Amino acid sequence: MPESPYPMVSVEEALATVLAQCTPLDPVILPLEQALGHVLAEDVRAREPLPPFPASVKDGYAVVAADGPGEYPVVGQVAAGQVADFRLQPGTVAYITTGAPLPPGADAVVMVEETDPLPSQDEIPRVRIRARVRPGDDVRPVGVDVAAGQQVLAAGERLGPAEIGLLATVGAAQVTVHPRPRVAVLSTGDELVSPERALGPGQIRDSNRPMLLAAIAQHGGIPMDLGIARDDQADLERHVQQGLAQADILLSSGGVSMGDLDLIKPLLEHSGTVHFGRVRMKPGKPVTFATAEVQGRRRLIFGLPGNPVSSLVTFYLFGVPAMRRLAGWPDPHLRRVHARLAQPLRLDPHRPEYHRATLHWDPEGRAFVAVSTGSQASSRLLSMRSANALLELPQQEGELPAGSWVSALWIGAC
Ligand code: AMP
Ligand code: MG
């Protein structure tokens, strides 16, 4: 068998090579409603303090703390959203609701649970205050939650629900963020038909394209479907050029092994620069990475192997970090956790293996336990079913006994 001309690089080297070619996409301005999941490209400060006025923490009575417990006339009321049109004099109280501005003259709030209603006198309601409070009790002073001018978010932070809430708080209705990368997906192979088609002789259905499009969407990219290219130089070239014109990242699957009709590597050699064409890993050894300059911007091209498991595993290992870096994540790596093996696992003496497993929390052992998905054949997509982690098994003779600790890359939804 002819040797591949590409040197075998380690997964770590390959990933470093990929990330070295990635720069965050130029920032865009988005309305807040569309910002979820994006990474901020600028610091955000509060212009006004929060609360902007001394606000009641409770439903109850605004009081002058020095008055102390006793019976008092209720001279007015302030609900949230209103402003008192009176000044509270010592010896009087005002009804107040949570979030309402303290009336001028008042310096504390007594919660309603510490009071008793009394009969009105001369049509003025009265109340008994039972609690002794100090100035400031149950009042949020101006700026206690957010000070005026305070930085509430920094460039590089990813926007989740709390961050969206903070942006809303400070009135940032438009935010400057890195856009989601556009990722085009191309399947290659004469044997492939779309999922809705009946199978003819020698045909199989194209699983990789719907799978990778879904993975891209799940990991925050904008998926673009390039369809299926035939194992034909001109057809492949046309599809690849179409992808490069539209997308930041192009993922092809298939056609990267050593067969005569494995045309992707030579095609990438002539339309760009191939950075690696072989990685010491199982599955996914022939994964290929190239870049090409198109319309003044560097496009990333991943030639993923055709076997469904290999294509998805290599997408997680290299494609997801690349997408995250383009999207502006300061740390684009997959998250790692430690887990104990539920069963013994045989090791591969030639290549580190990314063994698909389902991690679940074991409350007794107080640890994640990794359950293998079974036969790890790279064509067997069932080995990715319900997998939320890739166990990083070392290149080694023999097996790891049940109960061994392994590191695992988290691939579940995040
Ligand atoms: P290749 O890398 O093109 O030699 O493909 C390796 C194996 O993966 C072959 O058995 C192909 O039929 C299969 N394969 C390639 N592309 C796909 C795809 N999009 N969906 C399902 N199987 C595929
Ligand atoms: Mg093929």
Kindly describe this structure.
With about 425 residues, this protein is α+β, with helices and mostly antiparallel strands. The chain has four domains: about 10-25 and about 180-325, 3-Layer(aba) Sandwich (Molybdenum Cofactor Biosythetic Enzyme, Chain A); about 30-50 and about 145-180, Molybdopterin biosynthesis moea protein, domain 2; about 55-140, Molybdopterin biosynthesis moea protein, domain 3 (Molybdopterin biosynthesis moeA protein, domain 3, Beta Complex); about 335-410, Beta Barrel (Beta-clip). It is built from six helices and 28 strands. The chain has helices at about 10-20, 160-170, 210-220, 235-245, 265-270, 310-325; strands spanning about 30, 40, 45, 55, 60-65, 70-80, 95, 110, 115-120, 125-130, 140, 150-155, 175-180, 180-190, 190-195, 205, 220-230, 250-255, 275, 290-295, 295-305, 335-340, 345, 355-360, 365-370, 390-395, 400, 405-410. The strands form eight sheets. Strands 8-5-7-6-10-9 form a six-stranded mixed β-sheet, with no helix packed on it. A six-stranded mixed β-sheet has the order 17-14-18-21-20-19, sandwiched between helices. Helix 1 crosses helix 6 (about 310-325). The radius of gyration is 31 Å and the shape is elongated. The model has no long low-confidence stretch (mean pLDDT about 95). Magnesium ion (MG) binds near residues 189, 254, 255 and 306.
What is the structure about, briefly put?
This protein has helices at about 10-20, 160-170, 210-220, 235-245, 265-270, 310-325; strands spanning about 30, 40, 45, 55, 60-65, 70-80, 95, 110, 115-120, 125-130, 140, 150-155, 175-180, 180-190, 190-195, 205, 220-230, 250-255, 275, 290-295, 295-305, 335-340, 345, 355-360, 365-370, 390-395, 400, 405-410. By secondary structure, the chain is α+β, with helices and mostly antiparallel strands.
